[in-house]
Amino acid sequence: MNLQLTLATRYLGGRKLRTFLTTLAIVIGVMVIFGVGIYLPSFTAAFEKSLLSASGQTDVMITHKTGESFSATMLNRVKAVSGVAVIGGSLERIINLPPNFYGKNSTISALALVGIDPSVAPELHEYRITQGRFLKAGDGNVAIISERLADTLGVKLNDAIKLPTTQGVVRLQIVGLIPGRAAVSNEQVIITLAQAQKLLDAPGRVNVIEANLTTKEKTESDAIVNAIKAQLGNTYTLGGLTSGSEFLGAMQMGQIIFNLFGFLTLAMGGFIIFNTFRTIVAERRHDIGMLRAIGANRATIVGFVLTEGLVQGILGTAIGIGLGYLLGVLITTGTSAVIKNIMNIEMSPVVEPSLVIVSIVLGVGVTLFAGLLPALSASRVQPLEAIRPSLGETMQRISRVGTIIGAVMIAIALAGLLVGNFALVALGGFLFLIGLVLIAPALVKPIANWFGGLLAIIFAREGTGELAQGNLTRQPGRAAITAGATMIGLAIVVGAGGMMFSLTGTVMNMFYKSMGSDYLLVPPSIAIWKGDVGASETLKAKIASIPGVGAVNSLRYAQSSLQSAAIKGAGEAAISVLGINPVEYSKMSGMDFQQGNAPDAYNALARDERNAIVNGILAATANLKVGDLMPLATPSGEHQYRIVAIGSDVLSMKINTAYISQTNMKLDFNKSEDIFYQVNLAPGADTATADQWLNQIVADYPQFRLVIGHEYAAEFRAQYDSIFIGFYVLLGVLAFPSLIAILNTLAIGVIERTREIGMLRAIGATRGQVWRTIVAEALLLAAIGTAFGILAGLYLSYVFVEGIGATGIYKMEYVFPFAGVLAATAVGLIFGVIAALFPARQASQMEIIRALRYE
Amino acid sequence: MSLIQTENLTKVYGAGETAITALDHANLNVNAGEFVAVMGPSGCGKSTLLHLLGGLDRPTQGSVSIDGQPLAKLSDDALSQMRRRKIGFVFQFFNLIPILTSVENAALPLLLDGTSPGKAKQKASEWLTKIGLGERLKSRPDQLSAGQQQRVAIARALITDPVLVLADEPTGNLDTKSSDEIAGLLKQIAREWNRAVLMVTHDPRIAAYAECIVLMRDGKIVEDKHNG
Ligand SMILES: Nc1ncnc2c1ncn2[C@@H]1O[C@H](COP(=O)(O)OP(=O)(O)O)[C@@H](O)[C@H]1O
Ligand SMILES: [Mg+2]
Known about the structure:
The structure holds two protein chains of two kinds.
Chain A: H1 3-14, H2 16-51, E1 60-64, E2 70-71, H3 74-79, E3 84-96, E4 110-116, H4 121-124, E5 131-132, E6 142-146, H5 147-153, E7 160-165, E8 168-178, E9 188-192, H6 193-199, E10 205-206, E11 208-213, H7 218-232, E12 236-238, H8 245-283, H9 285-293, H10 298-343, H11 353-379, H12 400-419, H13 422-458, H14 464-474, H15 476-514, E13 519-522, H16 537-544, E14 549-563, E15 572-580, H17 582-588, E16 592-595, H18 598-606, E17 611-614, H19 616-622, E18 629-634, E19 637-648, E20 657-661, H20 662-669, E21 674-681, H21 687-698, E22 705-708, H22 709-735, H23 737-752, H24 754-762, H25 767-806, H26 818-844, H27 848-853
Parallel strand pairs in A: 4-9, 6-8, 15-20, 17-19
Antiparallel strand pairs in A: 1-11, 1-12, 2-10, 3-4, 3-11, 5-8, 6-9, 7-8, 13-21, 13-22, 14-15, 14-21, 16-19, 17-20, 18-19
Helix pairs in contact in A: 1-10, 2-8, 2-10, 2-11, 2-23, 8-11, 8-15, 8-23, 10-11, 10-22, 12-13, 13-14, 13-15, 13-25, 14-25, 15-22, 15-23, 15-25, 15-26, 23-24, 23-25, 23-26, 25-26
Chain B: E1 4-13, E2 20-26, E3 29-30, E4 35-39, H1 46-53, E5 61-66, E6 69-70, H2 76-85, E7 87-90, H3 102-112, H4 117-130, H5 146-158, E8 164-168, H6 176-191, E9 196-200, H7 204-207, E10 212-217, E11 220-226
Parallel strand pairs in B: 4-9, 4-10, 7-8, 8-9
Antiparallel strand pairs in B: 1-2, 1-3, 1-5, 5-6, 10-11
Helix pairs in contact in B: 3-4, 3-5, 5-6
Bound molecules: adenosine-5'-diphosphate and magnesium ion.
Adenosine-5'-diphosphate is lined by residues 13-14, 20, 22, 40, 42-48 of chain B.
């Protein structure tokens, strides 16, 4: 092994505790980045998979760009194009299943119902029947499924499987089995097109056209495809059904926040490493001087320190990636119950190669970067320091330039808050933290004096309080760096806590406002409507006729897309369209309006015009204002909707959404399927009877869960809280490395003051007095770090809440994170004392003679 | 030409009223194979002289040449190389790296010079054996007596075959028996291996091992006499 590595490993091995703690800082930083990095792709993958429809191996596949169904007569237009050999239309729909629909142990959360034309489908796809028969025209409730699905469900040929549809639950008899495909998408239940149109309440409609061409030759087939496109117009697209990209857009926000935390953690890790290397260099000045005396040049010394950093960086990163994987798995499984409940998707951890690379680069890079300054300062150690004791510590001067730069950074950060651009606000958060670190040295003295007064009371009669205070103010820069690491750690705790409290408060307020009815009929997913199978208008009528029911409000859903030059990237965004009955809706639910007001908006929707309310995200994405016209793509062509208000409710909180009247939805999207209901009882109604009736009626529609309004809110709250508990545990882990920072600074202090401590002991200070001096110093440091951390954390959370408000997406109310502040104070001070124990012991146990003779 | 040549070597610490002239126009010549003891009261500038000769510090005035090479002209890297290859240091408090074994400590200058670890350690073992530490090759400093630690330091000083060995109170921290052994070893280094050895000491008995004694007072060389 070469000298560099030998020295690095021996030094690291010789200080196992410190090596462990410092490496831990890197481990935790990398762990958070890696763990969080696993979560988002896992979610996205699961999400996309849940929406994936089976795309065939046909030459051409055509869908409407909204993904909605269209008239089967469109087939004739394609048929007329010369070069088309076979053509078939099908109606495909993902059906979200309610929990435990096929029994307790069933792992199936959704199926794809596929209606095909039995006369042409075999020419487009291969259906290799292994048992039973293929479908034939005139088949009713019969289906073909894969052997794998049959196995999973525990059914055989000629058995029946049940499926929720808009007509209630139907039982389909299995007439044929095909081999299971190695597909990532949902399992298919294949029935005839005619039957699918009936069960999905879409008579005469298809949503996929597939065709095979007379030629496979590239240029010729391209010409045919172009001819088909010309026939259909630009609202149709070639390719499979689109996934719910309207939702993925909303994920970006989450990603920004998560990344912010990742960077903060890493910044803290860098700080701690920096601090540790300063300790290392201080401890080894003697050894370094000797190496210089016997002929090591400066570059060699830099190399020694950096090699040590490299070893730790690689080790920490490797462990961090391992633990990060576990963390990712933990969050994924931990939140999957909630995610499944809200969105009906199953998650499993996904690791992207780029994540591994980024983690390695950041983990090792930050370590090396943080080690660079201490390495350079090590290289400036004079050979004479090996022989002659350094002249002792002198007062460190406070850099005025640093203080000014810090103050300017804080000013910029505060100014950014006023401008209200989210990116600027996030950047402002960083500037604020760095600014605090820079002005901290100037503040150490006044703060130490203030806290020192408190300590003087605690350690009265001994004078150790003053000594501790003196030690800190002698090296304000070092004290500030330590306090800085603590500060960043606690800022994360308080900041994230504040964000979370505000977010919860806002969401819960919206929730109570828009879900405040006596009963709710909730589909499997309340975020991705696409896979929800609703019910035809009969169900609403049945509910309304129950004795005691006062009012019923329902929600309808269609997919659409909006073209606008304001939309970044493709210039087009997928959006959810929710159909409401403005009269019923305004009675039982409500939105938060950012522009416009409730009476005007609902009246406008009730009029016989194309009017829409859009939510904040959509307004921000497409730069829409009240009064603007918005061209919505619909299966019956593009229609202009006028925006009458901007507002959101809890259901549309996360995705691009436009609200239109149910009348217009029927007209333009040909949809009259209800996917969500709210029910209020009449005043003085017999609750028990109504309850019984409701249960009985809903039993036929298991795709809906009948819940009592306030119970649902409580359930929602509990799920939210369970996520937050996990989140707080994570935050606690994040704050842990600040312990190392305090420990290191105190350790340097003890080393640098060895002679001084020896002298104190020689002139009669007891071990206890020395011990208390060090502990008092730690308490002071921790107090400074904690005070700054809380300040910075409050700023960060406030900035976040205001930043979101400024983007115009949600109105959020700032909730002061009392719990976070209390937790941070406790953690900060407890850590301060724990960190002091080791160096304090070392100082108090010091042999007097040796200490005096040191160096 | 002498191996060490100094001309009006002067070192002033500090400035103005508090300035201390630690070394005052010192002129000294030492030849290869010579063993010189430097003596004088505490604070008279002995260590300062040694540091300037070894290129550990720069003079305020005057010049030092080692082996015909004026040190003033050398860059930090070149000076480092000079210390590595031509000069060996022995300190009062040994200054061994606590986490390295005897062999590794002794091999340090060669390793720093880019010699392969195998070769460097072999040479270190040879030197350690030569000076009587063959049994303690794998020991760490805390497992060695003071005299043994100083021997490791001497092996480290000799390993690059330097022309000059500088020792600042090498016996200052040793008992009488070890002191005699170390002084004898330094004498052997000069006699048998033809190095120039400059040793600072307070102890006349130890100084008697040298063939030449330089006396200093208040930063000046006041006497330069050959033993017997
Ligand atoms: N780094 C320094 N700064 C100021 N004065 C110094 C320094 N090093 C040595 N001196 C002073 O220079 C004089 C000579 O010191 P030194 O060479 O160490 O003496 P010796 O080794 O003979 O005891 C002493 O007065 C000492 O106090
Ligand atoms: Mg001296």
